[in-house]
Design a protein that fits this description.
A: 248 residues, alpha/beta, 33% helix, globular, B: 2 domains, 85% helix, binds adenosine-5'-diphosphate, binds magnesium ion
Chain lengths: 248, 261
Amino acid sequence: MTKILDIKNLRKIYHTKDDEIPAVDDFSYSLEDGEFISIVGPSGCGKSTILSILCGLIDKSDGSITYLNNSKIGYMLQEDSLFEFRSILNNCLLGLEINNEMNKTNIDNVKRLLKEYGLEEFKDKYPDNLSGGMRQRVALIRTLAINPNILLLDEPFSALDYQTRLIVSNDVYEIIKKEKKSAIMVTHDIAEAVSMSDKVIVLTNRPCKIKTIYDIKLENKKNPIENRKDPKFNYYYEKIWKDIDFNV
Amino acid sequence: MFSKEHLLYLKKIKQYNFFVKLFQIIILLFIIILWQILSDKEIINPFITSSPKAIISCLVKLKQSNNLFIHIWTTIYETIISFSLGTLIGCLIASFLWWNKFISKIVEPYLTMLNSLPKVALGPIIIVWFGAGIKSIIIMALLISVIITIINVLDGFNKTDHNKILLLKSLKANKKQIFSKLILPSNYKTIICALKINISMSLIGVIMGEFLVSKRGIGYLIIYGSQVFNLNLVMTGITLLAIVSVIMYYIVLRIEKRLTK
Ligand SMILES: Nc1ncnc2c1ncn2[C@@H]1O[C@H](COP(=O)(O)OP(=O)(O)O)[C@@H](O)[C@H]1O
Ligand SMILES: [Mg+2]
């Protein structure tokens, strides 16, 4: 396996008027091509901070991040943030427009993605006409449009209701696997993490450090919905559950 | 096509709207007729309250002396100029202030102060600076519409969904792209709303200006009438103003409907 992203001793301290807030104390990880990892931890421990640093939205305080083999990041947030004044297709083309990459190959690729993932008939419609689950799939295609090889997903399904969430996470997983992307997903849902990931990283309370890394070895790995029925699913679920210091 | 119940429902809505219109017209006619009768019977003093008939004959006289449309047109013309300039300048300054947070922060208290200052108080200074002419009138109206436009549009710009800005940043958008792809289009409605407010603001400003300096325009008719104690002329001016403002408001409303479709 080839390494595509190397994070070493990442640290982040936020500065505000009243206080210094250490958010990330020490985070290191080497991501391999095609790997799907999840980061779980108590709320407010610094998970979103790590992703924001990785995609360059905020500056790190210390440590190093190295992208290997021309890796490119795509970022997907909890809110789909679709522009209601743009059609679905134009929403998906946003990244290409911004980066001046509106060539035929790229546009055709977006159209292919829309078609392949069941959104072709909506491509000229506006976001208002779509359900929450569909909107999230559009957001994923918008992220995929710029051809990233690493996806950062920050609680991507939290805004959805439970049923939709299962289905959409399953869809998103299959899309990511089919398009051969690597992913780092932040979630607070342990079941989601275990059912989707190759590895689950448990973080300590803020300022976060890596507490444990779980290598998820299910008996029969399929898709997230099926994985939930795997004999070893509960084993991992409980182990991780006990490992997280929930602040209630 | 539709079921019987639905047709009935539509009919009811139609009837309802019809009655609303009907009563609006009845009230207007009632006021006009009552006004006329009261002044005919001298229950109210026709010299200071004027009367519908006197207003009409005043309009005819103005028309005969070829002045009516000059006055109306002058006011409309001044309003349109200050309305367009006010909206344009206001939006440009708001964009600039969105772009430059530092300067925005600096001018914030000044904007608030200018906004709460009654602009009519600046009238005498404006006349001294810009002369007793159309320039002063337009500047007066501009002052009123520009400040409120800046405040409203800037507020809309600053309230743009933070997550969408974050999304654009994650796609490596620069500030210009954030403005053109998100801030401007998502504040389309704010800007249209500013148009609607500005048409009234400009008219207020223009009439105020005409009170102070003009030789023409509806505001001039009103102030001149009161100076020579010709209340018929004053009432005629007010009537014209009411009609002009309603027509202009409806035109903007029409434009709004077109643009937001
Ligand atoms: N811009 C910021 N300024 C100051 N503190 C922040 C900022 N963003 C996040 N924090 C703080 O850093 C901590 C970690 O935040 P975050 O990474 O969003 O947590 P998580 O995603 O794990 O819930 C929180 O305590 C939060 O209050
Ligand atoms: Mg978070």
